[in-house]
Amino acid sequence: MPDLTLPTPTRTLCTDCGVSRMVDPGACGRACQFIKPDYPGLEARVHGRTREEARKDEMYFGPFQSMHQARLEPAADGAQWTGITTALGADLLARGKVDAVLAMTGAEDDRWRPVPVLITDPADMVKCRGMRMGYAPLLALLEEAQEKGFTRLGVIGIPCQIYALRALETELGFDRLYVIGTPCSDNTTTEGFHQFLALLSDAPETISYLEFRADYKVELRFDDGRKQEIPFLKLPISKLPPDFFPLTCRTCVDYTNALSDITVGYMGGSGEQWLIVRNPRGAEMLDGLGDGVVLSQPSSAGKRQGAVRGFVANTRLAAGGLPLRSMPDWLRPVVSFLQPRIGPRGLEFARARLEMKAAETILHLRRAMPAKMKNMVPGHVWALARPYDLTPEEGEKSS
To answer: Is 50 helix (H, G, I), strand (E, B) or coil?
Structure first.
């Protein structure tokens, strides 16, 4: 079995998805999102078609059958939102659809540090509730699953893990995979995350919950039951090191986990979870929750273009670091008040984040690794960046 205690690889573009720790580490060359991704090819294989520009929002969110706002009733104790992600995994196990679910739990000595785990008892999915921050070699446990004779597997992962899983899916030989994806809103090391927590509170060790919400606030919860909300504009971003988010996250081209069967996140949820059902297998998983999940149509309000243009301008000025915040302190409370009222909300908020990520990918790669651009930036990213005067320069787009 792979040694998960080994340090994270030191490659410039690596999120330690786990493939490099498998018997054949050379599979990274075939699997890595950061080498030469083939989203059209994998989308066609997984979903039966690629994203279509004529279908509203697919250039942003990837192929899908339906989208919903959703919540579990009652909400699960200890869940990051209401517990839909872990409920999907538990239901797969309870109905005998899979032999195990590959997911993340927290380390015994650090609740924020992610540790990959194979869950075989539906009741144990409770161990996977809540957010983790950091890198963990999830896919290395695929070989342990094979050694145990598991042939049907559920997998819960972030985009860079799911891309590698799909790239290797046919050679892994599982009879059936159910893939539950979570959108990624940038990652950092667990140590870096603790630095961030220390800037938010005098007692960071007592913070038990942190969520970036679609209403432009970060919500904190503490062990003693207290809650705190911090507007995005009041976050101490300027005190973080320039490489707080590594180049991998600043050049991610798949925020919405387009190769999952169902994506469960928050960006388009307007205070509830956001479900993207991508194919019949995703619909099958959602149907398994029955009346326990309450669905409604996603909302959309505000206009994103001004916010995205400001982000693009700040990213250009940041010269490779975190986007600069040039707003005077006296204006921040005013903008913090206005953002959740007139800024992009719901699906418009999600579209804004996807356009920001597309611009960020192009600008950071163009500065740091220009030779990578022709292979790393897929067509849908160029399409999202085009309205902001970001188009391929010579040699930046593969023929």
So the answer is: coil
